[in-house]
What does this fold into?
Amino acid sequence: MIGNNIKNILYEQHKTQVWLSKQCGVTKSCISRIISGKAQPSLKLLAKISEALSVDVCQIIQRGYHWKMEWKEVNPEQDDWERQIDIVAYYGSVTIGSIVYCGKEIGWQSVIDGHMESMEAETPEDAKKEMIDILDNHCIEQINYYKELKESLGGLTE
It folds into this structure.
């Protein structure tokens, strides 16, 4: 589905896989594998594709559905946070994670599933980019966890 959506957007914009691969800093083969459905892009690459095509990530993921993902500045949940920016998926308003600024001494922190981690970012824009990488790694870890769990449960039923 993602590959087909990218293919359709490229067609509508009169752009090529070669053009997209150059914009994203990957090989044409990489883009071709995604478009053919043989591979799935990482969140980081998906963000690059979205930026290159000037479309929302959600248009690539589920084209035709009316949901989107966006950054939303909200009132900080804790007193020691100066700023809080949530990344929210609007298909039922689910907050995926947050970046919070805890002042100059501590800096930016990522918050996913209640776990807070330090970030290297110094600006909100850098924190957003870093958060995409963190979410990408988080998703991979979750997928691997569930694969391992499924395998271990499979061994119990044999």
The mean pLDDT is 82. The longest strand covers residues 83-90.
